[in-house]
Design brief:
This protein is α+β, with helices and mostly antiparallel strands. Helices cover 37% and strands 24% of the residues.
């Protein structure tokens, strides 16, 4: 992202974002491009926003582990200037935000799962968001599904890539969850986006 565009986006975000908002970006790496392609979406990474000591942060599961990242650093990792902020249609109160932070804190430092296995102690971005909101607020964001179901819904996905990624054998019945399923969750509404409709 060009610096002038970057600071414009950051200024826009800081003026509209609220704690508990879900933030989506697009990571420019081969793996994450395949994640986006395999879900028919532009996004490949997700976290949620909190404010600490008057500064905005994103709580995320990224390589190598769950962490808090400044909003600026998080957005700086996107490609094609792509970023979207979505918010729950049902407003969060202060007690909800506190529960989210407390729940997320319990997962800080947990290692990333490069196999995107939902049924594991390790985390990945969309799983971290899903489990944190579910445990803290009883809200399930996105859709947990098997790899077979996911790839069946997305025929444009490269099965050959995933076969190589899983060392020759795709674990078809492995449960997972994607950023795309959260981006499209009807419980959320778009507050801000740089992404054109239809992208």
């Amino acid at each position: 992202m060009k610096m002038t565009k970057f600071y414009s986006v950051i200024n826009d975000l800081e003026n509209c974002v609220q704690e508990g908002d879900i933030i989506f970006i697009s990571i420019n790496s081969f793996l994450y491009r395949q994640v986006a392609k395999g879900t028919g979406s532009w996004t490949s990474h997700v976290g949620f926003v909190v404010k600490e000591n008057d500064e905005w942060f994103v709580l995320e599961s990224a390589v190598p582990c769950v962490r808090r990242t400044s909003l600026k650093d998080f957005v700086s990792r996107t490609t094609n200037d792509e970023v979207s902020i979505l918010r729950l249609k049902e407003p969060l109160v202060d007690a909800d935000i506190s529960k989210l932070k407390q729940t997320a804190e319990k997962r800080m430092g947990r290692f990333y799962h490069l196999g995107f296995k939902f049924d594991s102690k390790r985390q990945f971005c969309s799983k971290f968001v899903y489990l944190t909101f579910k445990e803290a607020l009883g809200i399930e964001l996105g859709k947990v599904q098997t790899l077979a179901e996911l790839l069946d819904e997305n025929p444009q996905a490269s099965v050959n890539f995933w076969r190589c990624w899983y060392f020759g054998f795709v674990p078809w019945q492995r449960k997972t969850i994607t950023p795309a399923s959260q981006l499209n969750d009807p419980q959320l509404e778009t507050i801000y986006t740089t992404v054109s409709q239809g992208t």
